Amino acid sequence: MDKLVIEGGVPLQGEVRIAGAKNATLPLMAAALLAEGKTIVKNAPDLFDVLTMGRVIERLGADVQRHDHTMEIDATSLDNFEAPYELVKTMRASVYVLGALLGRCGKARVSLPGGCAWGPRPIDIHLKGIQALGAEIDLDHGYIVADAPKLKGTRFFLDFPSVGATINILLAAVKAEGETVLENVAREPEVTNLVRVLNKMGAKIEGEKTSTLRITGVDGLNPVTCSVIPDRIEAGTYLAAAGLTAGDVLLLGAEPEHLTMVLAKAAEAGIKITVTTEGIRVESDGNLRSVDVETAIYPGFATDMQAQWITLMTGAHGVSLITDIIYPDRFTHVPELMRLGARISMKDNVARVHGPSQLRGAQVMSTDLRASASLVIAALAASGRTDISRIYHLDRGYERLEEKFSQLGARIKREHE
Ligand code: UD1
């Protein structure tokens, strides 16, 4: 297993190219199953989760080829309807093939994703929406068995605007007979990216960026060439790292529109933000003010930025309150940050960060993707050496992380434990 060794205390300086968004790539890969022929996905990040999704759709019969950041998915002949446990358990988003398989073949057998590090994370809304479209769903030995010789348009209200449920139901609905109206859907940029690509493939979806999607079913979809939007969470992670290390970093290709809330909060914390034609420039003198955040659905503050924000606030003057409404149990990074000298107290889903703290290097352990990112940021700002173990989480969602941070001047290397 690999670990990261970081000698902190260097202000990050320079430019970093923001990769395509993992969470936008995975739904596009599932969408490719809806069309016979070759779909080309550009700007696809080179990440473990993308590789896993590739394995899932290859198992169904698709051919997946990668050349640098371009992925070619040929889904002409699908000969299997099962997404097995050993793949789905490693990545929840593989459950997207449920909607896509129903849309393409009218049947699917997909392992239930199971629990994860931050709470139960059910998929009840995915299943209710797909049932509303007329699919019969059974649970059999840990598998969702779905059958729908003909999906039928419907009106469905999501109990919560879940990103995953919106994507899964949408993938099934685009080919359902007649009109489907989905209310209270997620409006995250990754959903909008999918809506646009599906429309390019020939789907008829109205209402992008709003909480109601109106879909007129079509008989077939065509393969297209499409592109993945920049990763707003990767951009936010580099922003927090630049902010805490008193750095000056240009986030090349970052999309300010997707980061409105994070940029506003960063500015409130005393970080200078300049939007340029090339991206977003982040300048910090290290003199940060405490700023409270509460996670929310888009365009609110993303739960995927909560851990990084807590870390940033360890360097801010005063007390900041960070509340996670979306995933109340997602705080496994807090005890690890405290090992680095952060002063944080927890009450329910609220972290109270007392700052500023001079962080000091220590041995810590990654617990999930964004928690790991928060530890990297802390280690970059800490004095002395930090060893972060179990970094396979980072490889799921951050492309060439140590190389990118090295280019910004960080002293960071990967070692085999
Ligand atoms: C996606 C992102 C993840 C991000 C999350 C919230 C991907 C691959 N993952 O996850 O990085 O943290 O959005 O922005 O894009 N819920 C239910 N029933 C359901 C589905 C969800 O109760 O059927 C609840 C969840 O428990 C959670 C909330 O809804 O409290 C939000 O979850 P959701 O938006 O579905 O997150 P994911 O799609 O799993």
CATH architecture of the largest domain: Alpha-beta prism
Largest sheet: 5 strands, mixed
In what range is the share of β-strand residues? 25-35%
Level of helix content? 25-40%
Structure in a nutshell:
Helix content is 31%, strand content 27%. It has 417 residues and is α/β, with parallel strands linked by helices.
Description:
The chain is α/β, with parallel strands linked by helices and 417 residues long. The protein folds into two domains: 2-19 and 230-416, UDP-n-acetylglucosamine1-carboxyvinyl-transferase, Chain (Alpha-beta prism), CATH 3.65.10.10; 22-227, Alpha-beta prism (UDP-n-acetylglucosamine1-carboxyvinyl-transferase, Chain), CATH 3.65.10. Helices cover 31% and strands 27% of the residues. The protein contains 14 helices and 25 strands. Strands 18, 19, 20, 21 and 22 form a five-stranded mixed sheet that branches. Bound molecules: uridine-diphosphate-N-acetylglucosamine. Uridine-diphosphate-N-acetylglucosamine (UD1) is lined by residues 23, 26, 92-93, 121-126, 160, 162-165, 186, 190, 302-304, 326-327. Residues 23, 26, 92-93, 121-126, 160, 162-165, 186, 190, 302-304, 326-327 line the site of uridine-diphosphate-N-acetylglucosamine.
Secondary structure elements and pairings:
Layout: E1 2-7, E2 13-17, H1 22-31, E3 38-42, H2 48-59, E4 63-67, E5 70-74, E6 82-83, H3 85-88, H4 97-105, E7 107-111, H5 124-132, E8 136-140, E9 143-147, E10 155-157, H6 163-173, E11 179-183, H7 189-200, E12 204-206, E13 212-216, E14 225-227, H8 232-244, E15 248-252, H9 260-268, E16 272-275, E17 279-283, E18 288-289, E19 293-294, H10 306-313, E20 316-323, H11 333-339, E21 343-347, E22 350-355, E23 363-365, H12 369-381, E24 385-389, H13 392-397, H14 401-407, E25 411-416
Parallel strand pairs: 2-15, 3-14, 6-7, 10-11, 18-20, 19-20, 23-24
Antiparallel strand pairs: 1-24, 1-25, 3-5, 4-5, 7-9, 8-9, 11-13, 12-13, 15-17, 16-17, 20-22, 21-22
The structure holds uridine-diphosphate-N-acetylglucosamine.
